[in-house]
Amino acid sequence: MMDRDVTPVDEWRLIEAKPGGIPLGVAETLFAQSNGYIGMRANPAEGRDSAEHGTFINGLHETWHIRHAEDAYGLAREGQSIINAPDSKAMRLYIDDEPLRLGNAEVLDYERSLDFRDGILRRRFTWRTPGGKNVRVTSERMVSFQEKHVAVMSLEVELLDSDAAVAINSQILNRQDGEDEYHDSDAAQGSELDPRRAETLHDRVLNPTFQAESGSERSTLAFRCARSKMTVACAMDHEYTVTTPDGEAPFIEIDQRTEQDSAQVLYHVNAPKGTVIRLEKFVSYHSSRHVRGEELAFRCARTLNRVRRIGLRTLQENQKEWLERFWDRSDVVIHNQPELQQAVRWNIWQLIQASARAEFQGIPAKGMTGTGYGGHYFWDTEIYVLPFLSYTSPSFARNALRFRWDMLEAAWSRADELAHDGALFPWRTINGMESSAYYAAGTAQYHIDADIVYALMKYVYATGDVDFLLREGTDLLLSTARFWMSLGFFDAERKEFQIHSVTGPDEYNTVVNNNLYTNVMAQYNLDAAADVIRQMMTERPEAFREVCHRYNLEMAEVEEWEEAAAKMYIPFNEELGIHPQDDQFLLRKRWNLDDPEAGPKRPLLLHYHPLTIYRHQIIKQADVVLALFLQGNKFTDEEKRADYDYYDPLTTGDSSLSAVVQSIVAAELGYGEKAIDFFIRGLYVDLANLHGNAADGVHVASAGGVWQSLVYGFGGFRDYGGAFTIDPRLPDEWEGLTYRVTIYGCRLRVTVRRRTVEVVVEEGDHALGPIHIAGHEVIVGAEPITIVVGERPEHEPPAESEPDEEDLARIAEQADSPSDASPPAAPKGTGMQGDPAESKTAKK
Ligand code: BGC
């Protein structure tokens, strides 16, 4: 998948062994660093060459008026785009007035690496200057996990064989509006069509509000966004050392220049051969919706004072310890597979980068690594990232859920605007308002409400955080349950509850009736809300009374939710024995994906008008198949197999959210080869740039899916309704797999080998259980338990065949009359019984 001369294998690092070995924009993404609050693309310190300069502060965005050529009531009005925060990465180097520019420099012994154990991006090489002098250049950059507002970097220059005049120009630059002195073209913002890219903002965004210098080495700039009125301040401070062979300190001249769009601190020194000049740079960012730039600048100063006292080396050490603890609870090991291991860790690294300090913000689809999708938050967080966080870093999962809860006000208003009850969360957003201009593939994805509830319940089942459930959780449950009741309806005989005019996860079939995924997830949502309220009634009467009072809730309403859930229409086609994706799906024309002549060009969304796509039986991403995974206890094995077999050939995988899900379900069905194939596609989606747009930022949802493929797919972990089971499917070519999940504060280590599963509580003070492992019920404690796993049959998916004309006519007839099809008895949604904190753990 990767050129190993350029990116050699290292289980803990991503390495670029040749300058320019990886395409520029892709490398900027792959080596990008973030703590979830500050994000920095891996642009070189010298500024050039860059495909897209990127420095991001989570939540810092500009708004713009969406001009709909044909307007309609309730369409999203305000676009939101993540913006380029002032760039503090620049530390330009000049030797005898010649600027270093890697693109045309003569460079020896080059290596750039990102180490997942300390989060430091390192670069070292020897530069043979145009004047023939050899200079060793070493640089480091780190965005701090412990200090949310801080990044630190260093540049070290060693004159190997000559005296030289050395100049280092350390800068903060407003790249959102200004251009740097090289007029770098912004290649990634090209004008060609790609809806996955961010909107380009043409008007000035960042208006300077404050500039300051302090001492000769500290500078601060502050700005306010023209429309969103958000403010941001960035400050830098420095520390230098010069070491000469004879110990004589040469004279260092420092110039400082601070303007509205840039701040510079320049160091000049005429140094003898053998001198080492080291410049350390401390950077702080603060941003706000309300606070003035001057106050933010003051906060930056406070932060800088503190971290300067700590010192760069100690900050690096602290980060290493922080990450050691992270890996202890989150690492997944594929035994003796260094290549895969490197890629697995890179993906897990993306998850922590995107989420750790997001705190009062969401987790953008691209993390903080690029401007793709405008920096928006989608359902990607809840379905793809939160399971990982809930089982490895639950406090980060809680923050992300709290952030959704914080949006409730806007979600209530949005539901009201669309004539619904309860809350409707935006399909894509930064500030809580719907930002999806194309409602068919946006607002109509109402499933976002149920996705949030799904993530909430998973978090609660994993942690037993009943307090959160009773406070924020009930708000989310009630508001979404009410929403579904007003969106869906009972048929005339009150036999079925149907939901019309929705879009499921598959964006190639929009505004359809009874999308299977949506109905199944809404059913889950309604059941979860009813179960929690009933449980509160008996076990937390005070909290129950309070919530009933606040929401004017009566049990008759809860009974309605239960009835709607029980009667939820689940489309099923007897003839094919499958769940149609929606009421119209089976009527559509098939489009053979593999036909080189008549088959479509990929990805479809870049080559065909939406209407061309919509009239075909073709899907962008797992939809029914995703439901089979998320709500797997509601489907029989036979149904799962039939559904998977039907949808697999129709799935383009044009969304990176698909392969990982297909891998999990394929693994469950015993389709070993498919499972591995889809896993590899998810694993390398960015590392091998499989979708061609890694330059726009990391596919964070896919990274979350990689973890899920390992833990749920091959690791066989399931947690329906907080009942934990492990039924692994180790690929033939793997010796073993080790993963960890933290449940109720206890860390469970699971090691899967060919014929055994070993489980142990490796951290925590109580036993866990009962857990069903390969059919055995066990209570797991500090002593490892080994369970023998029976041989598993491998299955082959059927060869693809097109249904003939007669078949199609019959199918169409059935699909036409959804009410005639008898819905399979969907098992009742899951819920908690008793206090989850008591029922799922057995004390030692
Ligand atoms: C997918 C969505 C996803 C979005 C952001 C789209 O291509 O179809 O499901 O939420 O990308 O990752």
From TrEMBL:
Molecular function terms from GO: hydrolase activity
Q: Where is this region: Disordered?
A: 177-196, 792-844
The name this protein carries in UniProt is Glycosyl hydrolase family 65 protein
Supply the alphabetized keyword list.
Glycosidase, Hydrolase
InterPro entries (UniProt xref): 6-hairpin_glycosidase_sf, 6hp_glycosidase-like_sf, Gal_mutarotase_sf_dom, GH65_N, Glyco_hydro_65_C, Glyco_hydro_65_M, Glyco_hydro_65_N, Malt_Pase/Glycosyl_Hdrlase
Disulfide bond as a keyword?
no
Q: Which organism is it from?
A: Corynebacterium xerosis
Q: Which Gene3D superfamilies would you find in this protein's record?
A: 1.50.10.10, Glycoside hydrolase, family 65, N-terminal domain, Maltose phosphorylase, domain 3
